[in-house]
């Protein structure tokens, strides 16, 4: 049996340097450091008014503008916006295909098990688009469930799917479309009877369609909470679960943006009002614990 040769000093030193680099890698991989060095990727679903590609070929929208305003003071100015289907955003972030989610994303406990969140940026209720004159008289999810045959269109992976189920709408009457514009096209073609999305999205879709054949269903009855008051959903940015330093810095800048009034100014350009600002006391941690 041959004796093992002692390692030379250069080899020992080289191994120590390599080990030190490997041990320090997780700290260097934080999004603050990565963003400042090379920028970040923010997955979007190309949907108005949240995050979409404008006529100039560049990403724009309420969430994109707010994201830039939050990240710039942190020294992060380069943001790439890969586009994917809405239902692929959460799996994409969890799999590391992008650094964060830059689209409008509701905070809900099931998603909180998979990804992290910023604190809320906006709050939102539901809304319907129906055919002109609202022939089925649909003003709430309860109305759709009571009808029994009304077909409701929404998007896979969204809160609206679970809300429809919880309201008693049969699975066979919920028709899913990857793009919100596809749902509107289905309504216009008579393949569904009502389109269900958050109110800001519905406003944008009606404006974009610019068709006398469809309209927003008004009034609309929000889902009530245990006390009978209208419930709100809260939009936030999807963030990695394992980067508390980035999450803390992100939330700090978001709070400053709101306190300065700049957050509302940005949102108002996309049809939001002060009513869509979340209560300052609502946090992602609270919403994830529901």
From TrEMBL:
SMART domains: PBPb
Keyword Glycoprotein: no
Pfam (any one): SBP_bac_3
InterPro entries: Ectoine_EhuB, Solute-binding_3/MltF_N
SUPFAM superfamilies linked to this entry: Periplasmic binding protein-like II
Ranges for domain Solute-binding protein family 3/N-terminal: 39-274
Keywords carried by this UniProt record: Signal
Segment forming the signal sequence: 1-29
Similarity comment: Belongs to the bacterial solute-binding protein 3 family.
Protein name: Ectoine/hydroxyectoine ABC transporter substrate-binding protein EhuB
């Amino acid at each position: 049996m041959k004796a093992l040769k002692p390692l030379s000093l250069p080899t020992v030193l080289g191994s120590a340097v390599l080990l030190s680099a490997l041990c320090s890698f997780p700290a260097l991989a934080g999004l603050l450091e990565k963003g400042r060095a090379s920028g970040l990727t923010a997955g979007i679903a190309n949907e108005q008014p949240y995050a979409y590609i404008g006529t100039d070929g560049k990403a724009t929208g309420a969430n994109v503008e707010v994201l830039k305003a939050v990240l710039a003071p942190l020294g992060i100015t380069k943001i790439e916006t890969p586009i994917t289907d809405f239902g692929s955003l959460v799996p994409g972030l969890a799999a590391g295909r992008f650094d964060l989610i830059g689209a409008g994303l509701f905070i809900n406990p099931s998603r909180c098990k998979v990804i992290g969140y910023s604190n809320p940026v906006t709050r939102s209720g539901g809304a319907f688009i129906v055919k002109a004159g609202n022939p089925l008289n649909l003003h709430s999810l309860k109305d759709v469930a009571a009808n029994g045959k009304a077909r409701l269109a929404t998007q896979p992976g969204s809160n609206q799917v679970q809300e429809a189920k919880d309201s008693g709408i049969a699975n066979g009457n919920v028709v899913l479309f990857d793009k919100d514009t596809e749902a509107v096209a289905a309504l216009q073609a008579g393949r569904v009877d009502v389109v269900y999305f958050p109110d800001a999205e519905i406003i944008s879709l009606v404006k974009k369609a610019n068709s006398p054949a469809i309209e927003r269903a008004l009034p609309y009855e929000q889902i009530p909470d245990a006390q009978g008051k209208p419930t709100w959903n809260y939009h936030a940015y999807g963030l990695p679960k394992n980067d508390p330093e980035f999450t803390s810095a992100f939330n700090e800048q978001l709070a400053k943006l709101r306190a300065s009034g700049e957050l509302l100014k940005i949102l108002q350009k996309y049809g939001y009002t002060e009513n869509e600002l979340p209560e300052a006391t609502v946090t992602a941690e609270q919403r994830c614990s529901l």
